[in-house]
Design a protein that fits this description.
The complex is a heterodimer of chains A (386) and B (134). Chain A has 386 residues and is α/β, with parallel strands linked by helices. Chain A has helices at 22-36, 52-55, 61-68, 85-99, 119-125, 141-156, 164-174, 188-192, 257-270, 287-297, 305-310, 327-331, 338-351; strands spanning 4-11, 44-48, 75-79, 104-111, 196-198, 201-202, 212-220, 233-242, 279-281, 364-371, 376-384. In chain A, a hairpin with a 2-residue loop joins strand 5 and strand 6. Chain A starts with a strand and ends with a strand. Chain B has 134 residues and is mostly beta strands. Chain B has one helix spanning 2-19; strands at residues 38-46, 59-60, 65-69, 75-79, 85-90, 98-103, 111-113, 117-120, 128-132. Classes of the chains: A alpha/beta (386), B mainly beta (134).
């Protein structure tokens, strides 16, 4: 099969962008990605977005962005899979290029969370859960994650500060990322004193909802000159999987089946094993998700995900570096853009352009984007092309 | 006349309700299961008589960690129960062969007799691991 490569990347700083709208935000990332690709002209646009119809009163983002970016006439559609929207959009872009039907695809993730505040945002995010059986009872995704974390701590006898390692790692890695929302490292005592959001989830156990956009230009290797102006990264594995929306419908809520299924398929397609992975960009919108992903993907046996973080094995010099540019916790969680940010950050690592956060000799990355509590999981393997 | 009107009303109401697209409680669930999980079990015993072989008198070992390494390198594991059995589900199935191993219960002095890891094919029976106190 032909190599699908990432020819261009772009991203905006994650934060509160009240002064601009969705189109301007996304266009900033698009501009950078197209420029980085050497001016390739996209034939298709796949937009990952989670909640614009609700939070920004704007649907039909494909056309909105195609129009604003001067791309009218091309195929332009929106992909929605809750928090995994960005990963799902990347997969659609990958499939389009791999099929040979499209030569150049533009994948954009964009979200504006902060134009609304308070309970309306939580209410909107709760639409990603089972409306009839969960959201209608008043259960938000944060409350659901809190119940999951409580159960995990009870089953595996995790101490109160057991999850601190995830936040400490993310914030340490966010310091040198100019696009991160939070660029300040935290100490264990800061974590210990953090305000409780939904017991046992404190302020540092969840990512901040924020605005941001990221973009990728995909094409086939053979369509680029052999002396292309920057190192190329190929997508060697891509897979997605689905599970129940409602946690109570699962036979085992402490194991993210979709994380294992999609990662296993992507690794198989790439023809590699977990030991070949040099960095893992997980979906740390809640610390408990990160722990469960590490276990489900198989980096560690169940009940031990939190220990990897507590033992500092997920740091930049650890056994399996995670959230290498700050993850969702420090970079910020920009909903449907999150999965595209993961791809941009992993590409920086594989190109050797991650500067202070560079993983030495990083050649292979696993990125995994989740929708809800792994009701959707989308996994991609990115590899540096020699 | 009144009875005829009531009859017409009932027929009218019935036809209205019949037109409503209320999902039937007996709507069949699609029978196709595109994703099938894989299941693994393994057993741990203590070599009571010290002959190095599994005998009927050998007793189950609880809390040994039975671990399966899937082909993509991911590991799944479970502790053995009072019967010495551990049961593992691998969501989405598995490609064979897989590798299996077992670790002695934490803080025990048990030592494994035999190979530390075995290759397991789909047709193989659940492996039985034997521990010794020596």
């Amino acid at each position: 099969m032909t190599d699908v490569v990432i020819a261009g990347i772009g991203q905006t700083e994650v934060g509160e962008h009240w002064e601009i709208g969705l189109r301007e935000l996304a266009f900033a990332a698009i501009q950078d990605a197209v420029k980085d690709s050497g001016g390739l002209k996209p034939q298709s646009l796949f937009v990952g977005n989670m909640l614009a119809p609700n939070l920004s009163n704007q649907a039909h983002l494909g056309v909105l962005l195609a129009d604003y970016a001067g791309l009218l006439g091309i195929e332009a559609i929106t992909i929605e899979a809750a928090g995994a929207s960005g990963g799902a959009a990347l997969r659609q872009g990958y499939l389009a290029i791999a099929s040979g039907m499209v030569d150049v695809a533009l994948v954009v993730g964009v979200e504006k969370f902060t134009d609304k505040i308070g309970s309306s945002v939580e209410e909107a995010i709760a639409t990603a859960s089972d409306s009839d059986f969960e959201a209608v009872q008043g259960m938000t995704q944060t409350a659901q994650a809190a119940l999951l974390m409580k159960r995990y701590m009870h089953e595996y006898q995790v101490p109160n500060d057991g999850f601190a390692g995830f936040a400490l790692t993310a914030h340490a890695n966010g310091v040198a990322n100019p696009y991160a929302m939070f660029r300040k490292a935290i100490k264990p005592e800061t974590y210990a004193k953090a305000e409780m959001v939904s017991d046992p989830i404190n302020m540092f156990d969840m990512a901040p909802n924020a605005d941001g956009a990221a973009a990728l230009v995909l094409t086939r290797r053979e369509l680029l000159p052999s002396d292309f102006h920057h190192p190329l990264v190929k997508i060697s594995g891509s897979a997605a999987s689905s599970d129940t929306l409602a946690l109570h419908d699962r036979k085992d809520m402490l194991f993210f089946d979709t994380a294992q299924i999609s990662a296993g398929k992507a690794l198989k397609q790439a023809g590699i094993i977990l030991d070949d992975i040099h960095l893992f960009e997980y979906h740390d919108v809640f610390s408990i998700y990160a722990a469960l992903q590490l276990e489900a993907v198989g980096f560690v046996l169940r009940a031990n995900g939190w220990k990897l973080a507590a033992d500092n094995k997920i740091g930049l010099k650890g056994k399996i570096p995670c959230a290498t540019m700050g993850g969702m916790k420090a970079r910020g969680f920009a909903g449907g853009a999150a999965g595209v940010y993961q791809a941009v950050e992993a590409t920086l690592q594989l190109r050797g352009q991650a500067e202070a956060n560079q993983i030495p000799n990083a050649k292979t990355a696993l990125i995994q984007s989740l929708g809800g509590p792994a009701s959707t999981a989308v996994s991609h393997i990115l590899q540096k092309l020699d | 006349m009144k009875e005829i009107r009531e009859l017409i009303f009932v027929i009218f109401l019935s036809s209205l309700l019949a037109g409503c697209n209320i999902p039937s409680a007996t709507t069949p669930t699609p029978a196709i299961q595109p994703i099938v999980d894989a299941f693994f079990s393994g057993y741990a015993y203590l070599d009571v008589n010290g002959n190095g072989e599994l005998d009927p008198e050998d007793t189950p070992v609880e809390n040994a960690m039975f671990i399966v390494t899937l082909q993509f390198g991911g590991e799944v594991g479970a502790l053995t129960d009072k019967t010495g059995c551990a049961f593992i589900v691998a969501p989405g199935g598995a490609d064979y062969p897989v590798k299996m191993r077992i670790e002695a219960p934490k803080d025990s002095n048990l030592k494994l007799i035999g190979p530390s890891e075995i290759t397991h094919d789909l047709a193989d029976e659940a492996p039985k691991f034997l521990f010794s106190t020596k």
